[in-house]
Structures are given as C-alpha cells and as structure tokens.
From TrEMBL:
Belongs to the phD/YefM antitoxin family. This is Antitoxin. SUPFAM superfamilies: YefM-like (SSF143120). InterPro entries: Antitoxin_Phd/YefM, YefM-like_sf.
Length: 86
C-alpha cells in the first residue's frame, strides 16, 4: 500500500530517508491535501527506471510487428548462416 505523508513531515530528514530505504515503492508527498511530489530510494528508482525501459522496448517491438518490419526467426538464421558460411 503506498505511503502518503504531508510536506511538513519532510523536516524529519533522517526518518524520511529510512522510510524511503525501507519502502519498495515511492512515497507520495501532499501539500494542502493534494499530491505534490514523489520520493523514493535510489534502489526503488532504479527498479522503476529498468521496468520503464523494458516496457518501452516491448512497445517498440509491438510497433515493429504491427508495421510488418519483422522477419521469421528461421529465415533470419538461414540468411546469417549462408552469409557467414556457418
């Protein structure tokens, strides 16, 4: 379950740092009852960044398939084998 804390809590920097390190997801910061910021540990950020890259690559692959810019795997392997004498 995501953690939501008011911006006034950011004064407790050591506690916030520990909270981020112990959380496996971002922590949402509110200001006047509305979402304002998101903070997270470097480890959590790297996980989200990696997954974003994976989703981007999947999206690119799906677009290539939809546009017909793909080849059958066996035909590609045969072409590479004959080109390089394998």
């Amino acid at each position: 379950m995501p953690r939501i804390i008011p911006i006034s809590e950011l004064k407790k920097t050591s506690e916030i740092s520990e909270m981020c390190k112990g959380a496996s997801e971002p922590i949402f910061i509110t200001k006047n009852g509305y979402g304002d910021m998101v903070i997270m540990s470097v480890e959590t950020y790297e996980k989200y960044d990696y997954m974003s890259m994976v989703y981007r690559k999947i999206s690119e692959a799906e677009k290539s398939i939809a546009e017909g810019r793909v080849k059958e795997a066996l035909k590609s392997l045969d072409a590479a084998r004959s080109k390089y004498g394998l």
